[in-house]
Amino acid sequence: MTPDTGAARALVAETAADPTGPSPPAGLSVDCQRPARQRGFTLIELMISVLIVAILAMLGATAYEGAVMRARIAEGMNLVAPLKTLIHENLAVDRTANACSGVTDLTTPVGSVVSAVCTDDGSVATVRLTLNETAGDVVINFVNDRAASQMWQCVGDPTKPGAPYLPPNCRH
C-alpha cells in the first residue's frame, strides 16, 4: 500500500503556515489523541461533597440542639433565682419560721418552665423547678438544709432525658 501523500502534503503545508504546529482533530488533545479534559466536576466528586456537607450539618444540628437545651434550663434556673433569694432572706430573719412565706409559686407556664414550687418541712426548704419536654422534662430541686447550714444545693433527676444538659453541679 502506498501512503496517502495528499494528506501528508496538506499536513506539511498546514505546519508551514502555522508555526505552533498542526491542530488536532476536534475533541482530541495534542498528546496521543486522548480526549481533551472537560471542565466541571464528576458525579463522584459532587456526591462526596454532598456527603461531607451532610455530615457537617448533622454534627452542627446536634451541637445546636444541646446549646438550646442548656439555654432553656438556664432560663428556668434564672427564673427561680428570685425565689431562692426570698427564701434565703426569710431564713436570715428567722431560721425556725416557714422559709416559703411570701413566696409565690409559679404555676402558670413561662417559656420552658412548667412550674416552680416552694416547700418547707421545717428542716429543709426546697424549690422544685419543672421544665417541659422542650427542655428535656427536667426536674431540678434546689435544697436548703437548715441543720447543715448548707446553702442551695442543686439536685437534678438523672432519669430525665434532659439530664445530660444540666449544669455540672446539678448532676447528682
Report on the architecture of this protein:
This protein has helices spanning 5-17, 43-93; strands at 113-120, 124-131, 139-145, 153-156. The protein is an alpha+beta fold. It has one domain: Glycoprotein, Type 4 Pilin, CATH 3.30.700. It has a four-stranded antiparallel β-sheet with strand order 1-2-3-4, with helices on one face. A hairpin with a 7-residue loop joins strand 2 (124-131) and strand 3 (139-145). 20% of the residues are buried.
Query: What share of the residues does DSSP label as strand, in percent?
Result: 15-25%
Return the domain count. 1
- Strand arrangement within the widest β-sheet reads 1-2-3-4
Label the overall shape.
rod-shaped
Provide mean pLDDT, rounded: 77
What is the tally of helical segments? 2
Rg over CA atoms: 38 Å
Q: Main beta sheet: strand number and arrangement?
A: 4 strands, antiparallel
Structural class of the secondary elements?
alpha+beta
Could you give the count of β-strands?
4
CATH architecture: 2-Layer Sandwich
Along the chain, the helix and strand elements come as HHEEEE
Helix amount, in percent? 25-40%
Query: How far apart lie the N and C ends?
Result: 96 Å
Which stretches of 5+ consecutive residues score pLDDT under 50?
none
CATH names the topology as: Glycoprotein, Type 4 Pilin
Query: What top-tier CATH class fits best?
Result: Alpha Beta
Keywords:
172 residues, Glycoprotein, Type 4 Pilin, 4-stranded antiparallel β-sheet, 2 helices, rod-shaped
